Amino acid sequence: MSDARLSVFKTYKLYVGGKFPRSESGRVYEVTDAKGKWLANAPLSSRKDARDAVVAARKAFGGWSGATAYNRGQILYRIAEMLEGRRDQYVAEVADAEGLSKPKAAAQVDAAIDRWVWYAGWTDKIAQVVGGGNPVAGPFFNLSTPEPTGVVAVLAPQKSSFLGLVSVIAPVIATGNTAVVIASEKSPLPALSLGEVLATSDLPGGVVNILSGRTAEIAAPLAAHQDVNAIDLTGADETLAKELEIAAADNLKRVLRPHPVDGTDWSATPGTDRMTAFLETKTVWHPTGALGASGSSY
Amino acid sequence: MASVFEYAPAPESRSVVDIAPSYGLFIDGEFTDAADGKVFKTVAPATEEVLSEVAEAGEADVDRAVRAARKAFEKWSALPGTERAKYLFRIARIIQERSRELAVLETLDNGKPIRETRDADLPLVAAHFFYYAGWADKLDHAGFGASPRPLGVAGQVIPWNFPLLMLAWKIAPALATGNTVVLKPAETTPLSALFFADICRQAGLPGGVVNIVTGDGRAGAALTAHPDVNKVAFTGSTAVGKQIARTVAGTRKKLTLELGGKGANIVFDDAPIDQAVEGIVNGIFFNQGQVCCAGSRLLVQESIHDELLDSLKRRLTTLRLGDPLDKNTDIGAINSAEQLARITALADQGEAEGADRWSPSCELPSSGYWFAPTLFTNVTQAHTVARDEIFGPVLSVLTFRTPDEAVAKANNTPYGLSAGIWTEKGSRILAVANKLRAGVIWSNTFNKFDPTSPFGGYKESGFGREGGRHGLEAYLDV
Amino acid sequence: MPTTAPAAQDPAQDSARDPETGPAHGLHGLHALADVTASDSTLRRFLHGLPGVDTVGLEARAASLGTRSIKTTAKAYALDLAISMVDLTTLEGADTPGKVRALGAKAVRPDPTDRTAPAAAAVCVYPDMVPTAKAAVAGSAVQVASVATAFPAGRASRAVKLADVQEAVAAGADEVDMVIDRGAFLAGHYLKVYDEITAVREVCGTSARLKVIFETGELSTYDNIRRASWLGMLAGADFIKTSTGKVAVNATPANTLLMLEAVRDFRAQTGVQVGVKPAGGIRTAKDAVKFLVLVNETAGEDWLDNHWFRFGASSLLNDLLMQRQKLATGRYSGPDYVTVD
After folding, report:
1. pLDDT of A15-36, one tens digit each?
2. Which residues of B are tagged catalytic?
């Protein structure tokens, strides 16, 4: 009577600082599938959870941004490997979350895995594409290099619970930023499960922190947080996006506005925009000078 | 300071510039009065002499300028890049031809020394137009995809510290990429922008492509809030920058901000000392310290603090403060009474908080707005003079013991625009430069600018870059 | 001496008259540096411990001072000062007594049409021409300087070099312009260079002031020029001098600025004031005035005196005189109105 076996439910938890805490609030909310059937309870994150996630992200920033681009690429690729191994789990979760057929959900998961691979390859190329030497009119060697902005609050897309999620996280961390991610409010489970993969992919704790709950509630303190450097408003509607952008001005966060019409085609190959949105250009001048006081005679 | 070698006055002739008694707004290729007929006076900060009376734009004028720019946008953006390039090349050439006149004008209206307008501002202004002229027909190769589109009408608000140079930084890339422009110069320095309008006329630039609306902060606010503006570019204070960021929130306007700073100039014990002293002086006294990227915090390794301060003080006694039109003047006037009051208040606060204040003995002219070069020693991170942007010739001196501590102190500010590193050890330059959170880092030099070199800040110093290939992005729909 | 600096700031001059101590001794500031020259390694450590020089920054500072605008009264002062600082020089294989006599006359009275024009500081000749030069300037304040130590290459044995100096001094040279052994310097044998300078110093004794020529164009780097400056000063130079005028690059604003920084710092540390002489390549009054600006704003006004600053030059004097005439008359002068030497 194998089908009589009672399955083991998973307790979905947040992913903060490399650990899996429950919400500090002690509260959860019901997550249902596309047809309204109960799937699980998800943590209902509070502003304190947001605060803790920022602390974790800040703590991780030095190490992650200081890691070699090659190393970051290896880790992003490792995430793809780990996902590949748990593909079926994500196909099931995405099918439930988005009301997709298994093949359609599988296509989403496959595209998400491929996206990690795509960004894994970018880590050690973006600097060459957007940086470079500047031929200044003087005896100076002048070099512009991109550097990560810092801690980025990411409002993941509300509809595309996994491919969209990966498409907004990967570019942020590929370049060395750390992220505090607010999962899709209605479909947070694939995001919370992603934390389990991130935790086993050599990604240092705190580089990605995943919160679930009411997007507007969690986003407000993040947008106002003075130790958050940027905010990706992809998962915000027009009204919320404006409120958050106003709050973000208090410490001049870099703001990536939501696409005007919800319906971003996450399956299209992304450009570099999501990386460059959270990169700063640092330009360093070095004198070159003559070979000697008498000029070169050799 | 009676010296055996007293330099006789060597004033640049004022007669090269002909300032009209009044100027209108430059809208759609014509100079016109403000709709409500309002005007304001612009004075020479060195003498408080009234230079001219300038139209004060109101909301209606700003709206008219934006409509003119909108109307001009269709044709201007449709022009082949090669043609836009030629207009910009023309402008660059005319600026070179008229550089003496513009330098004197800028010195009169701003108060900065002619040595700087002649040797720094004007050459950089012309170079900026030359540089972006060349981009106009090469945008396909700029790394933003094929045929990148302009944004539309750019609303640009610029400060008074480098009036014409900031205009160049704004207008050159905007026009090269096919945008049209409404620019509001600072209230205290409107004249060079109005002369630039005349240069546009001489260059045959179509009406409406460049519009200049003079006025105060209200005109700037009206411009940045105008619903038909597609791009807002602002250089100025962080406080106003934040206000603008709130204004454009929820719109599709693209925003770039170049704001304040509290740059750290870090001197290690193995620095080339004489050049470091020059770099410190250049870092904080260039343009009377009214520079967003000024090296206003000197972080000196404790082991050479006394030696360096002696050299620095000795050097400051040779600075020549006075008539900005005198070719030997190093330190000119503060731009306005308001700015002078702010510098004075902050310096007084520094003294009140217990930092040691020092200035070389120097006589300040009796009229005009003047502030002596000032050093504060025994400053800690907690002092207001170490944290607030003073935007004046005031240097705060702090010490550090190790490279780690230097970096930590340098980064300990909400700003992140500039920093300097002085050491003869190459690997230390690279390591420290790597750790500093600032957009422009000068190693063994300071306050160098070039049109090819992107400029802009981290953190509350703003976002977006001006200059170089990077500077195109601010004006393209990418 | 035509002019003198305050005695307190002129210790080299005072001590130079004291045969017991000599210029490099008897001063507390120098005692502190005595260990420096104890051995080749201590000297090397000291010289290599001097702050580095950033080429771009140094040259930018020199160029920036070059933009000073010296007009009217300041120009008149500067032109006269520059004339009084000229070491009118002829160092040719073709030098004859006639040529040297003409030069002497010119140094004593540079502008025959204007007696208010100051005399030059010195005439500078080869050792064998010293007697002729002495006779030519007799009765005036003009000094006779002699190059020595196998000028300009300096490639001879120590004995030959010292004999060269001895001959010049014996013939009455007031000043000796020696060249350092650049080969030894570039090979890192700093103590050898030091010893040679002190040996020459000794031969000069109290009767001749010693100018030490580095040939900056051959030392090549600014770091080397700073090290050579300190080496020369430690060894008792009364003047440090850029160059011989015989190589491609001679005096430049940047290398002179650097040497002015060195004498400024040396005095601050030891109390001993040392003069500076840029030589070679300074041909116009405009250039000379720029050098005076460098002096004024780097070492300071204590060096604005021909006891402490000289121009090694020949054609410069005529341009200074023409500019002086222009200033006096308001007309541009021409080469027919100054004397051909």
Report:
1. 999 999 999 999 999 999 989 9
2. 258, 292
- Helical residues (DSSP H) of C171-275, grouped into ranges: 182-186, 190-204, 216-219, 222-234, 253-270
Write out chain B residues lying below 8 Å of A254, CB-based. 463
B463 and B417 belong to one structural domain? no
Q: Is C211 a catalytic residue?
A: no
A128 and chain B: CB distance < 8 Å anywhere? no
- Shortest Cα distance, chain A CAs vs residue C263, angstroms: 19
In whole angstroms, give the CA distance from residue C100 to residue C128. 11
CA nearest to B330 within chain C = C68
Q: What is the ipTM of this complex?
A: 0.96
The CATH number fitting domain A12-287, selected from 3.40.605.10, 3.40.50.1240, 3.40.630.30, 3.30.365.10: 3.40.605.10
CB contact under 8 A, A294 and C225: no
Is the Cβ pair B450, A238 closer than 8 Å?
Answer: no
**Nearest chain C alpha carbon to B319:** C297
Tell me the three state secondary structure of residue B427: helix
Q: Which residues of B touch C71 (CB under 8 A)?
A: 8-10
Q: Rounded CA gap, B320 and A172, in Å? A: 51
Total domains present in chain C: 1
Domain residue extents for chain A: 12-287
> A145 vs chain C: nearest CA distance in angstroms?
23
Distance of CA B328 to the CA centre of its chain: 22
Do B179 and B280 lie in one domain? The reply is no
Residues 121-140 of C with CB under 8 A from B: none
Q: What is the DSSP letter of C207?
A: T
Six-digit token string for B164: 């014409």
Same structural domain, B223 and B367: no
Which of C53, C72, C297 is opposite residue B272, by nearest beta carbon? Answer: C53
B270 contacts C69? CB cut-off 8 A: no
What is the domain-level CATH number for residue B279? 3.40.309.10
How many domains, chain B? 2
For residue B229, the tally of other CB atoms under 10 A from its CB is 25
Query: Contact B117/B107 with Cβ under 8 angstroms?
Result: yes
Q: How far is A228 from chain C (nearest CA, A)?
A: 39
- pLDDT tens per residue, range C295-307: 999 999 999 999 9
Kindly provide the residue ranges of all beta strands, DSSP E only, lying in chain C, ordered along the sequence: 86-89, 122-125, 143-148, 175-179, 209-213, 239-241, 275-277, 311-313
Q: How many CA atoms lie within 13 A of A32 on its CB side?
A: 5
Q: Which residue range is the domain that position B388 belongs to?
A: 264-443
C255 chain-A contacts, CB cut-off 8 A = 293
Share of chain C above pLDDT 70, in %: 92
Q: What number of other Cβ atoms are within 10 A of residue C271's Cβ?
A: 15
Q: Mutating which of B132, B453, B477 best tests the A interface, going by the most A Cβ atoms within 10 A?
A: B453
Rounded Cα gap, residues B322 and B372, in angstroms = 10
pTM score, whole prediction = 0.94
Q: What residue numbers bound the domain in which C227 lies? A: 7-328
CATH of the domain at C210: 3.20.20.70
